[in-house]
Write a structure and sequence with these properties.
CATH architecture of the largest domain: 3-Layer(aba) Sandwich
Number of strands: 9
Structural class: alpha/beta
CATH superfamily of the largest domain: Formyl transferase, N-terminal domain
Number of helices: 6
Bound molecules: glycinamide ribonucleotide
Shape: globular
Radius of gyration: 16 Å
Order of helices and strands: EHEHEHEHEHEEHEE
Strand content: 25-35%
Number of domains: 2
Helix content: 25-40%
Amino acid sequence: MKSVAILLSGRGSNFLALSDAIERGEIPARIALVISNIESAPGLQHAKDRGYKGLFIPSKGRDREEFDREVVAELQKERVDVICLAGFMRLLSSYFVSQYPTCIINIHPSLLPAFPGLESQKQALEWGVKTTGCTVHFVDEELDHGPIIVQRSVPVLDDDDAEALSHRILEQEHKAYPEALKLICEDRIKIEGRRAWIVGG
Ligand code: GAR
């Protein structure tokens, strides 16, 4: 049974999808801790409402590594094995990544390496792609960059605006993230270079 921490900055719908899957017994994990760098994040309130330990650690105006050291200290106290970034809108320092090599995963609302960064759904619409989606990947020091674990595709419709497209992608995020966390918690992922393989197919 892996001990999981979830880091978020906002709404927290991916946190809810992960916690639902864990509570249904679909993932061999327990949520040890939820951390938000935004005090008013609805996701932090959802965590507390569900009875999880929820911590606000302020990041505004602080040195990146100083913030990351405080987060890592809390993760170590709880002996966390896996860290899920779920709408956590901060780049991690090399210190943070080096403390948890291949143990940090992130979800991003595009088929990476297309449209990294902010407003990926708007970027996809503006580029005119016909298919976009979401990606769950390991986190390294570069933005939206590490080896890919799971991707799900979503069609872009002619009458889509950013909101409609975001909604359709989010539905797939809520399936992709639990699927990826399950594979990790079952020790079924092997990484070779940029490629993450599912052991046993
Ligand atoms: C999600 O769409 C997630 O993919 C995105 O933020 C949203 C968080 O929603 N993350 C990124 O863009 C990271 N680069 P949520 O708070 O409802 O889970």
